[in-house]
Amino acid sequence: MNSKKTAVSKERTSKKKQQSSTGRIIRNCFRILFLIGFTICVILAGIVTGAAFAYIKTSEPITSDQLMLKGFTTHVYDSKNKEVVALQGVQNREMVDEKDIPQDLKDAYVAIEDKRYYEHHGIDFKRFGSAIINFILPGGESHGGSTITQQVIKNVTGEDRRSIKRKVQEAWRAMELERNITKDQILEIYMNLIYMGENCYGVQSASKTYFGKDVKDLTLAECASLAGITNLPGKYDPFTTKGRESNLKRQKIILKEMLDLGFIEQPEYDNALKQEVAFAESNKHKQQVASSQPYFVDQVILDVKKDLMAIGYSEDMAIKTIYNNGLRIYSTMDSTVQKAMDDVFLNDEYFTKVNNKTSQSPQAAMVIVDPKTGQVRAMYGGAGKKVGIPLNRATSIERQPGSTIKPIAVYGPAINEGLITAATVVDDVPVYLNGVSYGLYPRNSGGKNDYDGLTTIHDGITKSVNVIAATVWKNYLGPDLSLKYLSRVNINRENERNLALSMGGMDKGVSPLQMAAAYVPFVNKGMYYEPTTYTKVEDMHGNIILEKKPSHNIVYEESTAYIMTNMMKDVVNSPDGTANRCKLQNGKMPVAGKTGTTNNNRDKWFVGFTNYYVGATWYGYDRQVSLSTNERNRAQQIWHDVMDKVHKNLKPTDFEKASGIVKKTICKYSGKIATELCQNDPRGNAVREEYFIKGTEPDDEDTCDVHVRAKVCKDSKDIFGRNLLAGDYCPAGSVIEQIFIQRKKAYTPLNPGDPYPTDWKYELPAGEYCNLHGPNSQDNTNANSGGNSQDNSKDNSLLDWFGGLFN
Fold first, then answer.
1. Which of 79, 94, 113, 716 is an active site residue?
2. CA 20 to 30 Å from 55, out of 324, 484, 600, 694?
3. How high is the pLDDT of residue 31?
4. How far apart are CA 312 and CA 129, in angstroms?
5. Which tens digits make up the pLDDT trace of 728-761?
6. Is the pLDDT of residue 158 over 90?
7. What is the CB-side half-sphere exposure of residue 757 using CA atoms within 13 A?
8. What is the pLDDT of residues 339-348, one digit of tens each?
9. Element (H or E) spanning 527, and its range?
10. Which residue has better confidence, 546 or 201?
11. What is the number of other CB atoms lying within 10 angstroms of the CB of residue 99?
């Protein structure tokens, strides 16, 4: 028994020793880990503390000048650095003294933005820690950690990038600020500084905007509503339906916070909840500000906002920065050019109402671009004086462009691809390009049965012939190449694959700004520039925060651009051109361009250019209606009168001829080298000089095969009035030589009643010989007597019928 007890005792002693040894090892490990962790924490704390002290050391204290709100007005300058407009001031920020701010409004801001405002010294560590925890934990209710004092620092410095350095310096500055001025002073600055949506800064302008009254007259319910906007002005804007709903929900939260903090008593809380907040019906303040702001500046603000958002700003912060951070925005506006445009658009003579089909007033818009840089020099977005916040039609409308699309969707691409030349001939005859079941399509000249017959591309552009453009698009170019070239000028329409595209019939239209930019490559050696409205944006300290370097790409070869320009010059200069009224400096200044008309004359366009500027003008009605006859030339008239003022003192300069261009003397009905016969075309001399990209020109041996010479009898005619070919029995006195045209592919109407082209009467009457003179004729001078008289009368009646088709 003793031996057993001794063994058990030894075993227990051994186990105790083992447990004691294990415990010591564990305790030692914990000690080591604690020491390592403690050391790491000390090191990290040292690093953090060192970095914090470094940030604080380099932090500049807030000066009294920075607290003066007058320094935060944003200025917009023109291309000569002359101020155009100040975006802030008495019109969108009205200062209010602390004594005129209701205590309810102060309490509402403290309750929702910084409930321990009167307890902390610039930093609320509890709120800051809560913000971090809620950010990390899933499902946590996210909120900001900045105090009102910190928000003042962020607003007056304009520093809002997310970084540890900025937050450390902001916290230090906040504590410094609270040591130098009182809480009431900080709160006054805050309430005069904050962005309140709708271009309002400070509670006074916001109160007038949203409630139509001074801030001192706000009720408790209105104070809570106003304070709720500050957090996210875009979300809580009461001028939108969704924003109003969100605003009123947030108002109730603020009132409850005020009650819980003891700022208001239960009866006040209950009465405020019962009050129906009456927001202003119209934003007159906003309209007043916008009315004094040019359309050009409207677009500059949109472009700057977009680019700020592209580098990380939220939309609200971008707007606040533009209107509240004292920026200097350098626009591309040329004030001289803009004034010339303003003079025309503010003149009621250009917009007199002559259309009895509508009660609307006519509208127009125009954009002028410098083709060497892509910089917009002037724009105007509507007829007459700008009132309120209207649609900027220069940049925001989407209207069908009509035939102004042809150079950029059809002819430019086809020439650049080597598919056609300026001398390529297309037969302008009745066609069924959408299929016979859909009827004649397209039609020319607004739907008339007007077809010229054999026509070069050059003349097709000059006369704006729909059949030529549609035929080239369908049979030469195809939708893929057309859309590819449109995308090169930033008109992306992947789904616009219908034949109507070739004539400007688009599901989604274009703006004057897009069209002006799309024509830049014709002047700028084939190079497209993204249109820009500003060059750079500086903060209040002169630091560049945005610099606009427009993207660019090659659309056409230089030779293509020149050939297109040369053809479009005839749109203005040729007697057959559709824009004769657009000559500048009495015809001394070289001009090229293209007109555009949409179905039923609902829109009129002219996009024209000189060596100096590209201008695009649109005229029509907001709710589409057919234009009256008396207003169908107003787009051209507006374009001419603006551009004539702009070019008044500019030296006439022709477009620079590109290298790789050759000139040939061709026949304008065959597109081949002209012969003597071409000079004697019955319609007049058919010979002209044409430009070609080297390698695409006709060989000298490739002469006109359309004009032919034939002997005819002057006494006999067919139903078209053409002299028939002379027969063996025609007397010598009746036989004459005439010049005719002869199609390589004969035209035969597909359906009865389809009109003949106007050049049909000059077609050689092949196989049709004189039917007056024969072997049995008694006297050639009496050839109309006898049996032939009845046949001839039938011919005459048919002649009358066909003649009616040409009228």
1. 113
2. 324
3. 67
4. 25
5. 999 999 999 999 999 999 999 999 889 999 999 9
6. no
7. 23
8. 999 999 999 9
9. strand 527-529
10. 546
11. 8
Distances (CA, A) of 357 to 44, 354, 602, 618, 634: 79, 9, 12, 19, 17
Q: Count other Cβ atoms within 10 Å, centred on residue 119.
A: 9
Residue 420 CA to residue 130 CA, distance in Å, equals 71
Which amino acid, residue 312? G
For residue 417, indicate whether it is catalytic: no
| Burial state string for 183-202 with b = 16 or more CB within 10 A and e = fewer than 16 | eeebbbbbbbbbbbbbbbbb
Burial classification of residue 235, based on how many CB atoms lie within 10 Å of its CB (0-12 exposed, 13-18 middle, 19 or more buried) = middle
The pLDDT score that the predictor gives to residue 293 is 86
Give me the helices (H) in 661-778, please: 676-679
**Residues 207, 331, 403, 482: which is the catalytic one?**
403
For strand 614-620 and strand 363-369, is the pairing parallel, antiparallel, or unpaired?
antiparallel
- CA distances to 399, 404, 472, 628, 743 from 443, rounded to whole Å, are 21, 17, 15, 21, 21
Torsion of the alpha carbons at 695, 700, 706 and 707, rounded to the nearest 10: 150
- What does the alpha-carbon distance between residue 804 and residue 807 come to, in Å, rounded to a whole number? 5
Which distant-in-sequence residues (6+ apart) come within 8 Å of 511 by Cβ? 365, 367, 393, 394, 395, 396, 397, 398, 399
Number of H helices, E strands in the chain: 25, 19
Q: What single letter denotes the amino acid at residue 113?
A: E
Report how far apart, in Å, the C-alpha atoms of 310 and of each of 314, 671, 706 are: 9, 52, 60
pLDDT score recorded for residue 550: 87
Q: Are 517 and 379 in contact (CB under 8 A)?
A: no
List, for residues 223-278, the tens digit of each pLDDT value.
Answer: 999 999 998 998 999 998 899 999 999 999 999 999 999 999 999 999 999 999 99
What pLDDT score was predicted for residue 634?
97
595: β partners: 606
Q: Is 70 exposed, middle or buried (0-12, 13-18, 19+ CB in 10 A)?
A: exposed
Query: 793 catalytic, yes or no?
Result: no
Q: What is the pTM of this model?
A: 0.72
Q: How far apart are CA 759 and CA 532, in angstroms?
A: 48
- Sign (positive or negative) of CA dihedral 607, 489, 415, 483: negative
Does the pLDDT at position 781 exceed 90?
Answer: no
SS (H, E, C) 205-269: HHHHHHHCCCHHHCCHHHHHHHHHHCCCCCCCCCCCHHHHHHHHHHHHHHHHHHHHCCCCCHHHH
The alpha-helical segments, DSSP class H, found in 346-478 are 393-396, 406, 412-416, 457-462, 466-472
**Residue 373 CB-density burial (10 A; 0-12 exposed, 13-18 middle, 19+ buried):** middle
